[in-house]
Amino acid sequence: MPALETLIERKLQQLPVPLAVRLPSGRRLGPQDARVTIAFQDVTSLALLASAKLGRLGDEIVRGRARIEGSMRDLMRVVAALIPQEGQMIRPNAWQRLINRLNSVLRHSRERDAHQIRAHYDVSDEFYALWLDPRRVYSCAYFADPQMTLADAQEAKLDLICRKLDLRPGERFVDIGAGWGGLLMHAARHYGVDATGITLSHNQFDHVSRLIADEGLGDRVRILLCDYRDLTPDRPFDKLASVGMFEHVGRANLGLYSQTLRRLLRPGGMALNHGIAASGLDDAMVGGGLGDFIEKYIFPGGELVHVSQAIRSLSQAGLEMVDTENLRPHYARTLWAWSDALEARLPEAEQVLARSMPPDRAAEVLQAYRLYLAGCALAFEQGWVALYQILMTHPDQGQVTPDLPGAHSAYPFRRNYIYQPAGSEKEAWRNSAE
Fold first, then answer.
1. Which of these CATH numbers, 3.40.50.720, 3.40.50.10140, 3.40.1390.10, 3.30.1050.10, describes 2-84?
2. Short-list 107, 265, 110, 250, CA closest to 175
3. What are the transmembrane regions (predicted)?
């Protein structure tokens, strides 16, 4: 123990960010001005800090064997300092990459995907409502104006997607992984589309079904409890969006996912894929075991690939990439907003979770989400992961655009259409709807 304490003291002195440690004996190590303290109940947990095994240290915090005293923002400054620059991204060897691919095949059956999605999204609707915006949009917001609130930025994101897809009244639109219905309802309300959404979450299905009924939109909006692989419409859709779902597909299913998007989209139609991507090539992962922590506690079965791999898979399926935008800093700000909102309501959050699970389990889930939200905010800030919107078309050789022969789609090949005021047709629809 004395040797371990000496190692810890030396490590604390070397950190650029003040951190204090409370030992199992009650003794405190570290600078007096430290704004964050980690209190340990046993030596095993303490050794994890000494060796910078942050994923396993997070496991100890979730299990209550270590406790955070201080803000999550200050803790994440410490986490960033604990990961050495040369160890931020780790590239696995050929054998590890093979194992990763085999695991991807094994853990992405329809049954396992459904179980994994429900394990995350069906935790508790009331819990998510505590820290998401009023529409419960659970994906990266778009801060078009730096002064925007989270709610305003989420609405801006929904509208950005609709504008990129150039949605028009009467078009058949499908939202793959519709969540709590934010995009589905926005597209129907403001763009007049005939909208279909799918989800694997029972809680989300029930919530969106109520929204549709309450707003009297059952004649042109529907939500289906359905795996994307099993969606078989009577004819392809004009426009398609997949938001925050790509991360759950799995490397082994990238080809099938891409082919499914093409199958669901009519020739000449447009699709947008909004998803998290790895920042490193060759299956590189964030060091310190942070990815393992998220896999275990938050997104079982989640897998990230580099944007180049995503575009390659989509292109191989016959889709043409026409625009790609990186929103990484926007997701960092979104995640901090979620983290701050949860931190402001911790006692209430634990009570909410305890209504749907045993108290011990509720405490663990809460600690896991605290670390997950703040840890992901840090990861996006540091550039360890990224968020891309990939806009694609299903080329149609027979579709002719007078001023741009060879467009082969509804995409105008002039990016300014996304940011210009809505056209007269959409404005007329909005005015009539209001």
1. 3.30.1050.10
2. 265
3. none
Residue 270, helix vs strand vs coil: strand
Q: Map out the domains of the chain as residue ranges.
A: 2-84, 99-433
What is the C-alpha separation between 323 and 316, in angstroms, rounded? Answer: 17
- CB under 8 Å to 315, separation ≥6 — which residues? 321
Residues 349, 343: Cα–Cα separation, whole Å:
9
- Classify each residue of 82-116 as buried b or exposed e, where b means 16 or more C-beta atoms within 10 Å of its C-beta: bbeeeebbbeeeeeeeeeeeeebeebbeeeebeeb
Written as one letter, the residue type at 300 is: P
CA-nearest of 296, 186, 315 to 243 is 186
Burial degree of 389 (CB within 10 A; 0-12, 13-18, 19+):
buried
Rounded to the nearest 10°, the torsion over CA 108, 113, 119, 121 is 130
Both tokens assigned to 293 = 């922590």
CA distances 31 to 2, 19, 78, 323, 425, Å, are 19, 7, 13, 50, 64
Q: Which CATH number fits domain 99-433: 1.25.40.10, 3.30.420.10, 3.30.450.20, 3.40.50.150?
A: 3.40.50.150
pLDDT of residue 117: 46
CA distance 171 to 243: 19
Q: From the candidates 140, 162, 226, 376, which is the catalytic residue?
A: 376
Q: Assign 7 a pLDDT band (cuts: 50, 70, 90).
A: confident
Task: Clarify whether 162 is annotated catalytic.
Answer: no
118 pLDDT band, cuts 50/70/90, is very low
Asked if residues 183 and 159 have their Cβ atoms less than 8 Å apart, the reply is no
Say what the pTM is: 0.88
